[in-house]
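**User:**
Everyone, produce one record:

**Assistant:**
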Amino acid sequence: MALPKVLVLVLAGGKGNRLELLTERRAKPSVPFAGVYRLIDFPLSNCEHSAIADVWVSVQYQPQSVNEHLGGGRPWDLDRTNGGLMMLPPFQGSERGGFTEGTADGLWRQSELIRQFAPDALVVVSSDAVYKLDYRDVVDGHLASGAEVTMVTTEVEADDASRYGIVEVGEGRRVTGYAYKPENPATTTATNEVFVFSPVPTLDRLEALNDEAGEDGLEDLGDSLLPAQTEEGLARAHPLDGYWRDVGTVDSYWRTHREFLDAEPPLDLDDPRWPIHTRGGRHSAARVLEDGRIENSLLSGGTRISGNVRGSVLSPGVVVEPGATVLDSVLLPGVRVRAGATVTRAVLDDNVDVGKGASVGGEGDITLVGREARVADGTELAAGARHPEPED
């Protein structure tokens, strides 16, 4: 019996304002994670291990940062003669052309292409979370259920639940209630931005909802589509029992990195049964020089450590000079911390240069320094600072 025809649509077009300076000059899916990876590596690796070869990536904001990383899709076995990876940039030439105004609007704009492809199941995923999931397993359960949508769910902290789509689940995993980012969540069961849709009824419903919305547009999936499917009893839940973290805010991005410093991290990114693949770099081995001291940290290729590094994640090409100290921080590619400088509880973007004797961050809120910024010698950036300061 042939496998169902599955199409995965990765929604990679949003700006990701919650990541602030980290997405000022790159798309959210191309934000580095755990030293050598990018956020989009997680859904693409899930596709590979789920034996799904048809993957479309919808890009919009800073698309070159995504295109440069993905190339032809070879690391995820998507460089194929038939099928494989396809990029979906904004386009003109029909009523569906232009920039998307939310996830549901983006799905509506691509609906003609999806109908032509005629998949048995459409998997729609975001690219701002860290997790492993067999999409094929979710698809099989969805097709057997007769539902119009299957929402993959996870449990979140009560004080964080209002950031998500929150569901109530009844017998047989049927979703009996859905609320998008509610002020007073009824449960702590949240959708984790992985959805499996039955394409034809879902796209037909989108057409009707778009007509009703008029000039206001469809906005996000949680605004009208998912509530309508839930109200008609056509939504089911698929609980993800394993690890899942949304890294769409500066605080969650920093905290999730901390979890991967444990002796037994929550996900083994090198698990031979389910490795996370990425586009390989061209860096030599990391080097810890004579005076360098490392404790409980992740070091990527090309790093050069002559100072003190503790509880931190260092991306390729980071240099920590003699007498410098890096504590509980995430340093992205090419950062240089010069002699005598201190970096504490901070996220430093690509090619940041921290001058001699400078002090960045401290106890308290996470400090964020934007790409290629220069922190002058002897400068003090207080905990929670943003450098350069965002424009109004």
About this structure: Helices lie at 41-49, 63-70, 103-109, 111-117, 135-145, 199-213, 225-231, 250-259. The radius of gyration is 22 Å.
